[in-house]
Every structure is written in structure tokens, then in C-alpha cells.
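=== Structure Prediction Worksheet ===
Name of assembly: unnamed complex
Input type: mixed (protein and possibly other molecules)
Chain count: three
Listed entries:
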Amino acid sequence: MSNEGAAGDIASLSTLGTRPPFYRDATVVKWLSQVVGLILVLLGLFFLASQAQNNLEARDIATGYDFLGTALGSDLGSGIDTDPDTSGRALWVGMVNTIRLAIAGIALATILGVLVGVGRLSRNWIVSRTSSVFVETLRNIPLLVQIILIFVVIASLPRVETDQGPIHGWLHISNTGVSIPRVTIGDGFYQWIIFVIVGAALGWQVMRRQERRHDLTGQQTYPWLGFTGVVAVFAAVGWFAHPALGWGGAIFDAIADGIDALTPGIVQLVISLLAIAAAVQWIRRFLASHRTPAGLTKLIDDDYFRIIFAAASAVLVILFVTLGWPGLSSWIINSGRDLFEVIADKFGDGRTGVPITAYRPDIEQLGNFPNYGPAGLNLIQALAAVYFGVVLYTAAFIAEVVRGGILAVPKGQSEAAQALGLRRTTMLRRVILPQAFRVILPPLGNQYLNLTKNTSLAIAIGYSDVVQVGQTVYNQTGKTLEVVSIWMLFYLACSLTISVVVNFFNVRMRIVER
Amino acid sequence: MADGGDVPVIGDKPVIERVAARPAEETYRSPGEWVRKNLFPTPFNSFLTVAVGLFVLFSARGLLNFVFSEERGWDAVRTNLRLIFTHAYPEEQYVRVWVCVGVVAVLAGLSLGLFASRGDGLRLRKIANGLNAAAVAIAGGIVLREPSVLVGADGETVRDGDGVVRQSFAEAMTDRWGWWLVAAILAVIALALRRVPERSDGSHPAVRALDFAVGALAVPVISAWVYPWGHYAFADGEFIAEPGRTVAMSTKLPWTVMWVLAVASLIAGRWVRSRVDERALARLRVVVSCTWLLVPFVLYWVVLRDPDLDWDRILTVDMPLALAFGIGGGIVLRWLTKDGIGEFGRISAVALLGLAAFHWVAAFMGWYPMLQKVRISFLLLAVMALLAHNFSGEAAKRRRLVLAWFVITTVFHYFATVMNTPSTVETPTEALIGGFAVTLVVAVFTLMLSFPLGVVLALARTSRLPIFRVMSTAYIEVVRGVPLITILIFFVVILPLFLPANMEISLFASATLGYTLFSAAYLAENVRGGLQSIRRGQYEASDAVGLSTVQRTVFIVLPQSLRASIPPLVGQVIATFKETSLLAIIGVFDILRMANSVIPAQTQFLGIKREGLLFVSLVYWVFSYMLSKQSQRLERRLGVGER
Amino acid sequence: MSISDATVAVSEELAARDDMIVCRGVDKWFGDFQALSGITATIKEQEIVVVLGPSGSGKSTWIRCINRLEAHQSGQIIVDGIELSNDLRNIEKIRSEVGMVFQQFNLFPHLTVIDNITLAPIWVRRKSRPEAEEQALSLLERVGIPEQAEKFPGQLSGGQQQRVAIARALAMEPRVMLFDEPTSALDPEMIKEVLDVMEELARSGMTMMVVTHEMGFAREVADRIIFMEEGEIVEVGTPHHFFTEPAEERTKMFLSQVL
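=== Predicted Assembly ===
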């Protein structure tokens, strides 16, 4: 290697203190390459978008979300509204179907998965073997194949008969699906649930107090009993007292009116101010982190680039909101108003009925063949197939997660607990499970996400979830891009919700750890 | 290791599940004691045993009754095996399919012979236990299954007033003598294996697991020649059913050849391995790996598709183009690796990249026409030029870079030409093949394409460059947040909208693209796990010895992180394989669609779905189960940490 | 003898030599924690400098700044006449002029010993493989473990690994070697084998900067000792001066704790 600068007299060095040319400057190269990469990606997206624009114009298809308000020419198989007026309503029905499926699926899959996962570790030979077979079979066959298989198997079951069915007519299984008791939300449900929530909050406090007393005095205080008792009392009182909360509707109505009074300009202003505030906040914190007792540190070029980017993104957001998509602000206003109007309606004055009712499934014969009546909760063939398919498949994975979590607790922990003389149940509850739960939670959240996404396979057997309804909509309207964008937003929102919930518990677990 | 010094291990987290928590191998106990200890230790456990046992017995009985019922339409499956595996690939060209299977068999045999780790002994005692269990299971199955339905002389089931008439229990037991025989033979073999004496050094007698698997495969192959499985087929639309004879020659002969080929190449591989030294073996490993990478393309685009090459065009357009790029690019690369070219070389490379990008811009704007493959060639050259400075200086390295460029140009131009040539093979649907073959093809192409993409995404997500990090994170999280089916629909229905009017894309291609982009996001997360397990010291050490970012990534970071992320990567392979079943939804004639819609639509097998679907489940299950078992073995081996 | 006397004594001996590492007013912050403040020092060619100081005193940070594993925020660092700046060419040059040995060895676990050593010469120095391997074998000979060439780092003892790490750094034919607590992660019985290699290296005329807690090594081998505390250079002097009559109170405190 050349060694031209090794002369003793350093002052004679010519490179000293001068900037290198830009293509040799580490910071400039670093940021320049990123900007070039960003521009290339944006350019690619822009070209694709303009190509799509051209193609759509050539085919005479207009873009936009107006179709959500137009009528849909077909019925839906199942859902809260099987004959929706508009495409938008139909998509909403599909979303509700997906969400219901996901929540019910998560509940059953968790129970089943935990049972099987614990069963796999059981010392009972037949239990552990059966659990293993369950897991190894179900998770190695594609879910879609399982769903279709269940669908076909249900179709080959016997027809609906008018006789009573098992468990005194509380359960029916036939080739049209499964019918189970329906529990419905009555008029007064939302008022009542507020009582329950207040009860739960109070009960929580009571439980904590009892726990503390137990810790201090060693008395047996039954904290869970306290919690359940308080909640039960509130639920019972609320059952009769809930009409008293009828005035809640007026408040939400007022909020809705307030939102409606906003103009798009105000919303744009608010969003712009928020963007600016966020950027300013970021820059201030950035600078604060570079402040030393001796004053501000010398910012290197890298830091300037970061600050410039923070400011530039704020500007971009503002440009997007005001010029790029002006409709966004009115959309925000409308949906905000609608949301609160719906809530206000739920709390309306007339809502004084019984909060929850249960019905026994019935069978009626309208035409040649008997069929399930409206009283029961009818898991029609397609719904039953996708529900049980998703539940069984996910349960197999949850079982593995649970097993892994329990195995991850070091053996020394249970030995230590035994050495302390803890009973087996106490050991499980206080030592093993809390530790296992911390390992289990993140992958469990992943499985919940997977389950939610997997409900989309319902499209293969024609259950009207959001994807299947969306397909119907774009087949009729040709608005494929828009429908796909709605799907993506919907599923992203679901994913986000689940990760937020899981993260909440995750953080709580970590606090327990300290 | 004598010292407690910091031994570099891959990853902070242990790669392996906690093996220690598993119960140790049990010492021998009397059967009664075993039952007491494992089935009835406590009252609650006894209750569980009885409940679960009954559940298992009833399920098994139901399954057996279903599978072996006289009313089952298994003919629908065995008649349509070809349909299920390759769809409507033309009969007279079918030898092409066998060539593909043969190539894979030979390569697999060679690879296993050359590189499979020895040591994996399968104890004879363990095999005997397995055979014993199988014999018991068969015997149990014979007893458990309900007695068969009586079939009259006219081939119809005998019925009386209440329904079908069944054999008596005793009749059924004697009627199933064939199965008893199978169980007895298995038991006898097991007994014989147990009697094999211990070796002189006191170790248990064992065979290589691989040898055992190959030997076991011989059983179905031989049985195809001797056992009357029956011959069922469609010949010119006519349904042929000949229960009494062995399977058709067009089935048993090729499979026998395949088995012989696999065994021969396995032996050949072992022989070569015993002859060459470590260095040559390492070189062979590279050659075989490269062959594996090329084989899917060759088999699909050349063997199966049989392009109808237009030699006029090839000689006047394609060959000159390839030559021009090969030679021109070679000269450019040689110049870029000149000693002391310094930053000027890199700036030239960036300029080349700009030129390549400009061609794409021009294509979208429609400024001047250009063959797509020319644009891609420019892009490839630009990428090579960006990497060139790593190869500068020494003559041998410069030669190697130019040589690599020649190979890349040849391969790329060859396949670009072949892919753009119409096929001589005519099939009834748009797709060349269907059934299980398309499942495999899509899975393999998806994995091959998504792997590099996933690695790049993972590197971007963990890089210190915030813009790249944000872009990559956004992509990964969005893709992982939405279901696969929406992405597939997007690519199948909407992708044509984004393409220039004169460009068409087949269902197969757009589906593969959708799978690739989907799977890349998941692969990226797996690779990221591996990347995060690399210690900071590794980065510092590579910086300290002066490696560039690219060199550090290729030589230090990726080898270690990929090794650490092998188990999740195999998991992703299994997931992708299972996800290919979604092809049926978007209209590809894959194996699931065969069973669910094509076969039930045949007049002979109208509405028969359950049998086909069960068979499909079995096929998927066998493949994914084998893969997951292999991955567990791999995981154990990595966990032991031979290095 | 006062500090200036000690410095003069050294200067006389080394005055004729070229400057190898020059630091002027080097500052370095981690967030609002100042790790280095106003470090000014010159290290001459073929000089052996040992940097001492309590943990957290900034020794390692300083030595890592000289190799630009950390970027300093103000001041100048000039190595062999090349200033460490944002200039990519300079960073590249300095990395191949300066060898570094880490406390945790940081060998590449997936490469054999010989590949560990030849990787950088082949891809950075652009040597041919046979040439690089020949050099690697002679370096292994020099550090005393020629028979381990084909093994993986995980199969070696800590002392052997550290010697491989030294060979790896030497393979780049550096003009300066930096040692960041090279013996701190070693079991006591292995420290000597590493120190022996370092002594041999010192005798061969390599410029070395060593962060260590090995007082024996400092006393025997060092030309100069730099004592740091809280990111500042407290005292500079010959080993004799340093161990027998330190001028600063803080130095005395430190010595009384470690000796």
C-alpha cells in the first residue's frame, strides 16, 4: 500500500480537514444510495399506477369508491343481513361474519389447543399418543383440504329430521350443518354491559385488596371469589336497572353532531398540525438526546440528514392530505359521525328490553323437507366446515406452542417448588404457568393472527366472509382494485388489533417478571 | 474444550428445543407394571384412559369402516391416478414426465450417496418394535372393522328389509385371512430381527436409515410385479377395470426403472465419495448444488415443455445478442477489475445501473422498442459491475468473474429464448401440467425465487440505512398482515391491469409471482431471526480486517445466520408446500381441484369426492410429515453443534 | 523526576522516528455520556504503548476510534498520515493498515483457522489463494500453532483462539496493531502463551497500542504507558516513571488498587 502521507510533518498534509468528494463521503454515499433506492421504488410504483390508469381508461372502467353506495344484485348466504341494500352494506356484513368467525374460532381453538398441548406432555400413554396423532395429522394437511373435506363429509350426513335430536333438542347435526342454541343480544344489552364493566373494575379493586390482605396477614381471602361476587351483583342489578342509562344516547348524539359540524378544511388543518407537531417533537427529542452537559454535541452530517427527512415527511403528509387526497378529510368526518350515531342509537331511549336471551333450536317444515328454523344458531354447512376446519388446524399449532412453552420452563423450577413443599396445583398455578405463559404468548398471538387470516379460505366453499362477498361485489361492479384495497385494510386492521391486544398482555407479563 | 473461554457459538438462543426436559429412555418393566404406571396411575388418569381410549377406538372403527367399506368408490382414485398427479399431460409424450422423475431420482441418489452423513444408524431392535406395532395395529384393525357387506353373485349387495346384510363376526374374521397373514409375517420378521445377535463390540446391530428406506421402497416396487393390485384406467375415454391382474406395464416398469436408477446412483455416489479427498468432495458439493438449482428450470421449460425452437430467429437474433452481451460484458467487467481503477470503477458501475434503469423507464414511456431480455441483461450486467471491485487485482480472480458472467449470460439467454418459444406439447387446458405436478412446480419455483428476495428483505430490515429499513419493514408487515388468498386474487385478477397492453402473463406465472412475494415476507422474518443471533463482535472483526459491506455480508453474516435459521426456514418450506393448495381457488387444475371438481364430474364417478379428498390429504400429509421429521432431525443435529 | 522529564526522556529516544498515530482533541459522546474528552497523544513508529485505567475509563473506546469501529465526533485522528474522516477511501486504507485483536477473539466460527486468516488477504489485499495460504501457514508457525490450520475455532482453546486472532490481524500486514484487552477473557494458564506472542511481535518492531490489565507486560515491554480515567489522559510516562514515582494522585490510587 502506498504510504505517501507518512511524513513526520503533519501540517503539510493536504487532505487535512477538507471534505472528500461526495462519492467518497461515507455519509453522503449512505444517504444518496437510500434516496436513489427510494426514488427507484417510487418510480416503479408510479409507472405501475399510471399503467393501471391507462388500462382502466382503455377498458372504460372508472375508479373510485362510489360503488359502495350502489345496489348489489344478489343475496348473501348468511350474516346479520342476508339481503343487503348496497355493496358497502354487503361488505360490512362480510366483515362482521369474518370477525364473528375469528372470535369464536379463537375461543374454541385456544381451549382445544391447550388441552391437546398439555395432553401431549401427559404421563398417561394413551392421552399423550392421541394428542400427538391429533397434532401431527392436522398440521401436516393443508387447511383448505381439511375445510373442503369437512364440507363434503357434512354433505354426506343424514337429512334433517323433524324429531327432537340429541340433548333434548338443544343440538342438531345434519347435512345442512349444525344447529345450536342461540344467545342473542337484546335491546338493553349496551346499557347493561356498562354495569358489568363498572362491576368488573370495582371487582378488580376488591380482588387486589383481598390479595394484599392475604399477603399481609396470611389469611385465606379468596380474591377470585370477591371479584366474581362483585361482578355478579352488578350484573344482577344492571339486569333490571339498565333502562336508567337511556340518557347516554343524547351524549353520543351530541358528539356526532359536533363532528358533523366540522369542515374538511378544519380536519386538514388538524392533520397538518399533528404532522408538524410530530416532526417538531421528533426533532426536539433528537436534539435533546444529543445535548450534553457541555452543550449541544457537534451534529454530524448523518444527523442533519435525519432531521431533514423528519421535516420532509411532515411536509409530504400535509401535501398528501391537502392536495393528494382531499376526500380523505370528509371521509374521516362522515365515518366519525356515523360511528357515534350508531353508538347513540344503541343507547337510545326505547332500548329497555332484556339484555340477553337464549333460544332452543327449532325445526320447521316449509316445503318438502324439514329444515332448521330461525330460533337456533345455525352453523350452515359452509360455516360449520370453515369453522371446524380453522379451529382444528389452529388448535394443532396452539398445542405445539403450549407444549413448547411448558417445556421451556427449566426443570429446576418445579424441583425448587417441590423442595419448598408447594402442592402440585399451587406449583402449576404460581410457578410453572406464569413462566410458560410468557414464552407462549407471542407465538399464540401469531396463531390468532393466522386463524383470522385463514378464515378467508371460506371463499372456497362459498361462506359469505369478507373475501367471498368482495368477490361477488367485484364480479358485479368490476371494481377489483378497490375491493382488494378494502380487504387489505380490513385484515391489516384485524392484525393490528390482535397484535395490540397481545402486546398489552406481553408488556404486563414483563412487568410481572420484574 | 478445556478452557471456559468464550467459544463462539452460533446465536445466543439455543437452536434446539429443550431436549433435557424429555423423559429419559425408560428401562424395561413388566407389561403389567407399564400399564399401571402409564395408564392407571391415579383415579383421574384411569378415567382419562378409558374415555380417550373409547374415543380412539370409535374413531378408528369409523375410519376403518369408511375406508374399507364395500360402497367406497376407490376406483375413482385408482383410475385417475395420472390425472391426480399430472392432469392431462398427453399420453404419447408421457415419457417426458418419467424423464423428469428419473433425473430427480438420479440426483437425489447421487446427493445422498455423496453427502448424507453416515452415523445415522437405525437399530434393528427399533425396526422390530415398529414392525411389531404395525402387526398389532393390523390385527386390531381386522377385529375393529365391522363385518363386510354380503355381495351376491350379480355383484350387487344383498339387502333385506332393514338394509344391507352383513357377514357374521366369525365369517368376517376368517374372510380377512390375507390381513392376518400380513400381520403374522410382520410379527415373524420382527421376531427374527430381535434374534440378530449383538455385534462383537457389544453394540446393537443396526442398518443405515437410508439403506432401510431404500429397501422399504423396494417392497411396493416388487409387489407391483407380483401382487394383483388390479388394472384400472381410462383408455380413450372408456373406463377399464380389471381387478385380477397386476398393475399396467406403463406403471410398474417406469417405477422399477426409477428405483433402480436411484439405487444405482446412490451406490455410485458412495463409491465416488470413498475415492476422492475432502477438497474434491467440497467441489462436487458445489457442482451438485448448482445442478439442483438449475434442474427445475431445465425439467419444466425444456423437458416437459419441449420448446418448438425457431432456428432462424435463434441464429439471427438470439445467438448474436447473447454473444454480444457475453463478450461486451466480459470486456467491461475485465476493465472494471483493472488494478487501481478505484472509485472511477464504482462510479461507472453506478452509471451502468442508471442506464439499465433508464431502459425500463423508456419501456414504460414507450420511447423506443427493446427486447425485454436485453433490458434484463443490462440489469444483470449492472449488478455484476457493482460487485466487480471485489474481484479486482489478481488475474485468476478477474478471469473467474468474467467466466461467471459468461455462464450467467448463457443460462439467462438460453432460458429467455426457451421460455418465449411455443411448446410442441398440447394439453386441453392453458397450463402444461396440473395435478400434484403443478403443486410441486409452483412450490419449487416459489421457494427458489422467494429465498433471495427474502434474504434481501431481511438484510434491508436489519440494515443501518433507515429508509431501506422502513420500506422493507412496511412491505413485510403489510404482506404478513393479509391473507394469502387476497394476494393471489390480486395477482391473478389485477396484475394484468398493471402490465403494458401488449404483455400477457399466464395464470401459472402470476400465481407463482403472488406466492413468491408472499412467501418472501415470511422467509425474511425467519432470516432476520438468524441475523439477529449474530454477535456484534463478528461485525467488528470483519470491519477490522477491512472487509467491505458486501464481503462481510456474503462471507461472514449470511453463512452464520442462514445456518442458525435453517429450522424455521424448513418450516416455511412446509408452509409454502401446503399453501399451494390455494391454487385450486384461483382456477389452476391442481391436485385438490382434481379431487374436488374434476373427478366428481366424470360420468363413471359422479359426485365421488370424499375418497379423492382423503387421498389428497394423504399425499400432502406424507410429504409434509417427511419434511417436518427431516427438519427435526436437522434441528437436533445443529443443536448438538458439531463445530 | 517530573512528568515533563519523563516525556523528554522518551522524546529523545523516539524523536527521530515518524509519527504513526496522532490524536488531537478527540471527543466522543454516547448520547449525553462523554466517553472521550480532549484526547491528545502521539504514538511513534515502532513504539509500544500500553493504555491503563480503571474499567469505563474510555481506553477501549479510544482504541476503537483509531480503527473507526466507533466514529469520533470532534478532533482529529491521523494514522500513518491518513486522517480518519468520512472519506470512504481513507477508512478503507486505515482498516488495512491497522490490525486489531479483540477481548472476545471474534474469530469467524464457521470458517477453519486457515480460512479465518486468508479471507481478508484474498478479498481485501487481493492476493491469490496459494500465496495467502502460504503466508497464513508461516504466521501460524510464528504464533506457535501450525498444526491447527484445518480446525474450526470452536475446537481450539481460548489461548489458541487468541493467537489465531493475532495471526489473522497480522495477515493483513498492518503497520499498527491494536490490542483491546487481549487476555481478559482467558483462563490464567493461557495468558502467558498470548503474551509471549505479543512480546515477540513487539521485538520485531511492530507499532503496538495495547489496552490491558497485565501490569507485568506493561512494565517489561512498553515504551510508554498512558493512564486514562473518565475519558481523559491523566498521565503519560515510561514504565519506570509510572510504576516507581507516578506524579498524579489518581494514578497512585489506581496502582495501589491493582498492584
